[in-house]
Amino acid sequence: MQRPRFELPEALVMKILSKLPVKSLTRFNCNTSSVYGACHGLLCLHDPLEDKAAIWNPSTREFKILPPSSIQRPPYFSPFEETYLSLDDVSFNNAAFGFDSKTDDYKVIRFVSLTFVNSEEEYSHPHFLHQVELSDSWKEIPSPDYTPTEPNGNIFVDGICYWKTVYGGYLDFRGLILSFDLGNEEFSILPIPEFVGSLPEYYVDLLVFNGSLGVIVYPSERIDTSFDLWVTSEGVWTKQFNFKSISGVVRLLGFGKNGDLFLRDTNDEVLLFDASTQELKELEINTYLDHFRFAISLHAYVESLVRINGIQKLKKHIIRQPARDA
């Protein structure tokens, strides 16, 4: 006899998960429990396939589920087909998370992709539109001319969220950096270092270096790959370092304490490179990355007692810095 299947309400599931240790939660990773940012000890969790987002403090186990979007998405009138198209699909992409000092609260911003089709035709040509939503009440803000190119390739620095984007044509795509100021709620564009060629020739990854926006630039060819680190100050790029090829390494993820580097190798393992000893250390955290090899990102995290609904003075809330290899 088959046992009946019981499904728990989502709110109850989230409440149960919020009481579990971090080590236990990592056992239950799935393709949609994605981390889209860390700020002041808080993590933003977001499901790009569904209208689900939450903010979590692992230290206090406080967990806040953001409300679903209430933004209207009426049928789209197509001048080409001279008829209204029905909404067929909605996806929530490129979320970013940060702190707005003007409102003394945390915000989540995400790009919404809308697909419209002619419901009266069996093989309708889809039409795509984009929206941008800002939490936590999810209000719509004007969409920029550019959209991010990577699902989780964003960083947050000093009140501003950054994403990679591109412009140009076939085999001559040029890189740009799209930014959003959480305080004035406006988008802007920042160029990458001028010497960088077209994107088929170079890869550009965003990161944080000493509290500033930086980029790692490296050629797409895997033979003797070297990495250049550039950091910007008020829109001016300055080259900081050049890292010669480290055997087996295909991508730099970012910097840890004391200038140590987190890397990804050809076996999809995450490594730590000690800059002082020039030694590589395997961190043994690759067991759940098999299907996310191109979506690995590094987020700075400190244990804290910051409340999700706001912050007073950050230094009073920090318990301690994480271990060196945390």
TrEMBL record:
Residues 14-308 form the F-box associated beta-propeller type domain. This is F-box protein CPR30-like. It comes from Gossypium australe.
